[in-house]
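The protein record filed here.
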Amino acid sequence: MRITAGTPSARCWACCSCPVAPECFPGVLASAHLQELERLVEHTAPVHAGGLLFRQGDPFQYITVIRLGMVKTYAVDRDGREQTLGFHMPGDFIGLSAIDEQRYPCNAIALDTVTLCRLPFHEVAELATRMPALQAKLFRSMSRDIARATQLACNCMADERLAAFLIDMADRMAARGYASNRWQFTMSRMDIASYLRLAPETLSRLLRRFQEEGLVAVEGRDVEVRGRDRLQAIAAIAPARRAIAVPHHVRHEAA
């Protein structure tokens, strides 16, 4: 991957003018600290759809922030089966799960044209010991990744997973200044199904049901959220409530 580091002044201008700066380190650092951090930033050349940003097993060296485009992370098991782990937008950090083993546990692939900012991890970690705001930003980013993984690991119903995914996408779009109720799926439905741990047929059936109920409108890759409150209610059903809502015939047999 070609890196265009440029001069310090060019890097400074790039950070200050970046539309995702509020989601990145510049959003939490004072100007004096930001200048120190900017000296480490490397801006990558564009990677087009289908290009790999890093491979499963590659050595971990950099903290990577998406500047433009969308990235999918996925792992491949010993039998060659692919599991989608996440979809990442501008301002998101990718690859932090590699910190422990010092090797990436997954692949990252561009879903459209992607540019990145990279910072050497060990230098950033040293800076974080002197900059509490920088350290807190890293912790929050890791916490969000863990929270999303935990949500999928819970024993949620299929419709809850899809509803939560749609609300999460809407909120992430809104946080980046885009419309929260209408966007395009950059990822394929196969990828979404893999991410939600659903069979593709189950995802298609749920999308049809959500459309029939007026919750969403989907045409090709275009999606419009029309029933946000209802989707939130579906996504927020607690395990205790699911246990209560046992079908009548099951309750009768158990009795």
Remarks:
- The first strand starts at residue 3 and ends at 4.
- Residues 1-12, 237-255 have pLDDT under 50 and may be disordered.
- Residues 73 and 86 are 5 Å apart (CA to CA).
- The longest helix spans residues 132-153.
